[in-house]
């Protein structure tokens, strides 16, 4: 009988809440699909909603620093310098993976598409055709993004701007003939604003990839495993899929 006396204590240990862990992060400014500080309570941004879902999946896991709103290039510098522990959400690239790590669970998929003026009937079906179009007016793309680097390697002439919203406003004014960006965010800016009757999305998907949680390079493995466990739970129960669909 004595050898079973350890069971109650062991069971209590298993039932105890996980140790509290606080990870530093920030919000990305200029990307309302990811983080919308002025948005309605029901739609605060897809990445912020995923972050909050992680906190619910692991009640001992918390994120600090969300009062800070910084542009993408600053997000990258903070990650590279180890000044934030985790960031929701970033695309992967070989250059980025040299500077920090990524949690293995994909958060949601994005498609590379272009926006054009509604009265522009030209169809662009390949990067080669986009490169030809760009010889007349550079294609607008958000500054410092993986998408900008992809266009540069495909010989597409680009002009980098601060945000997709700014790019679409310039497109509507005729300062460019195309904006290259993520389908989910371009559609949001077009349909939710005054540009709905002026702009349209092209039908061609130039590339498709997933957003991930980026992690500072020297984040402890145990911390990454704990975060990944929470993300796996959200993947299995359909939360990640449901949140992505909510913002499409």
UniProtKB/TrEMBL annotation:
Native source species: Pelomonas caseinilytica
Protein name: Transporter substrate-binding domain-containing protein
InterPro entries named among the record's database cross-references: Solute-binding_3/MltF_N (IPR001638)
Classification lineage: Bacteria, Pseudomonadati, Pseudomonadota, Betaproteobacteria, Burkholderiales
Keyword Signal assigned: yes
Superkingdom in the source lineage: Bacteria
Domain Solute-binding protein family 3/N-terminal residue range list: 40-248
Keyword terms: Signal
Keyword Signal: yes
PANTHER family cross-referenced by the UniProt entry: AMINO ACID ABC TRANSPORTER SUBSTRATE-BINDING PAAT FAMILY PROTEIN, MEMBRANE-BOUND LYTIC MUREIN TRANSGLYCOSYLASE F
Signal peptide bounds: 1-18
